[in-house]
Specification:
Strands 1-2-3-4-5-6-7-8 form an 8-stranded parallel beta barrel, surrounded by 6 helices. It is built from 14 helices and 8 strands. The N and C termini lie far apart (42 Å). By secondary structure, the protein is α/β, with parallel strands linked by helices. The protein folds into 2 domains: 235 residues, Aldolase class I (TIM Barrel, Alpha-Beta Barrel), CATH 3.20.20; 75 residues, Bacteriocin As-48, Chain A (Up-down Bundle), CATH 1.20.225. The longest helix is centred in the C-terminal third of the chain and has 21 residues. Helix 3 runs parallel beside helix 5. The chain is 45% helix and 13% strand.
Length: 321
């Protein structure tokens, strides 16, 4: 089967503005949005479109990449009701979050803590599957477990038996957090135990990581998160396609800057840009230099001017090369 690459949801980092920017580079088959929290009420459409504005453009990013919208909660009936409304807005599918490790989310019975209750996980997936049209994909993302991986097969089998069309597995428990390594060999055990496609996720930062992850998990699909944010050309590189160098990045940073101006208050915009630059430093020395120049700059006008200057400098260098 051809390799599939998904772009991960990352609360507080990989939102619709960064999705739109990264998918312009290419190599990504599908995005999953950051979670929409469901508690005890039917959410109005504006809540869904605020988190997933791609619902207003056919469920796709500006580059045409489909976006699956993710729900998080613990009440099967309420999740089903919200999933039905969400499905009517036209996402490329609905994903269910059983992987978020955030303490505040877990304290309110959301995310990875639900993996202690495989019967509830099954009930949630089954309720959502019944509530949406059969042609609407329903997928799930899970970690190996909450405190340990003792229930990982019970959860995976329950998700598959409930009718999920695909399962993404982050190869760590909630307790592991994001500390290396990711246990890709455990994903293989899950893949062998279910009859639905399994996507491997966790600690893929470069092509060598991707190759090892695919080999150890036996999967033919990857979900990239921080690795793709740090190296926006990673999906292309994994496919054996030449990835863009730093000269392609300043225009993308400018695009991202203009996107966040539409939904991030002025005093936080520089922080969002520096957050991305901080990860880009792993891949590009030039990002380190730009980060250092911007470190103490927070005024939006100055940030915009610095991005324009970086782009102009690279264009001038290319013209004289």
């Amino acid at each position: 089967m051809p390799l599939r690459i998904l772009l991960a949801p990352m609360e507080g980092l990989l939102d619709h503005s960064l999705r739109d920017t990264l998918t312009r580079i290419g190599g990504v088959d599908l995005c999953v949005s950051e979670f929409i929290r469901v508690t005890d009420q039917l959410l109005p459409p504006r809540v869904f479109t605020r988190v997933v504005p791609e619902l207003l453009t056919g469920g796709r990013t500006g580059a045409g990449t489909p976006v699956r919208a993710q729900l998080l909660g613990s009440d099967p009936a309420c999740l089903a009701e919200n999933a039905a409304r969400l499905a009517s807005l036209g996402p490329a599918g609905i994903d269910l979050n059983f992987g978020c490790p955030a303490p505040t989310v877990n304290r309110h019975r959301g995310g990875a803590v639900l993996l202690d209750e495989p019967e509830l996980v099954h009930a949630i997936v089954a309720a959502v599957r019944r509530a949406v049209p059969m042609n609407m994909p329903v997928s799930a993302k899970m970690r190996l477990g909450h405190r340990d991986d003792a229930l990982m097969l019970d959860n995976a089998r329950g998700i598959a038996a409930a009718g999920a069309s695909e399962l993404v597995v982050h190869g760590r428990t909630k307790v592991h957090g994001y500390r290396p390594p990711a246990y890709w060999d455990r994903i293989a055990l899950i893949r062998e135990s279910v009859g639905i496609p399994v996507v491997a996720n966790g600690e893929v930062w470069n092509v060598a990581d991707a190759e090892r992850c695919l080999a150890e998990s036996g999967c033919d699909a990857l979900m990239l998160g921080r690795g793709m944010v740090a190296d926006p050309g990673l999906a292309l590189a994994v496919r054996g396609v030449s990835a863009p160098d730093w000269s392609a990045m300043p225009p993308l940073l400018q695009h991202f800057w203009h996107r966040i101006a539409g939904h991030v208050v002025a005093r936080h915009r520089a922080g969002r840009l520096k957050q991305w630059l901080n990860l880009l430093r792993r891949r590009f020395p030039e990002a380190q230099a730009l980060f250092e120049r911007m470190r103490t700059v927070n005024e939006p006008e100055l940030v915009a001017a610095m991005l324009q200057a970086e782009t102009a400098m690279l264009q001038a260098e290319a013209a004289t090369a």
